[in-house]
Amino acid sequence: MSFDFALQKVMNVKEQEQKNSKNQYTEAMNQFEQVATELYDLLKKKEDLEQAGREKVTKGVSIYELQSSQSQLLRLQHAINETQHTTQLARERMNRKQQDMVRHSIEFKKYEKMKQVKQEQFKEEQRRLENAQMDDIAIQLFQKRWN
Fold this sequence. Notes:
The protein is mostly helical and 147 residues long. The chain has 2 helices and no strands.
């Protein structure tokens, strides 16, 4: 007699949910990394531009170049603000997906543990039945010897 777990179909659904949520988390994490890298690049570009501006000011520069540099910094700052907002949204999405993944993993583990417990109970019942059969056989053999 083989072991059949009554909740195997539910467990399979939970396992599939776990895999899906893990994939969604990985995708969200990759998206966050991409946006965060973009933000880093913009911040680095702004820092480089500011450094170059300070060097130009010490060497002497025309008003037109200063205005051009300032407008470039303003555009860059606007892009940084937008990217920071996008990064924050990506981080929040990644955190939600991580929570979903943890929740689905816990649910799947519960079913896994239930299956393990039921399997142990089944094995124990099989051992008990085998021992009872062996006892019956031993009693019958004993009775045959004395009859």
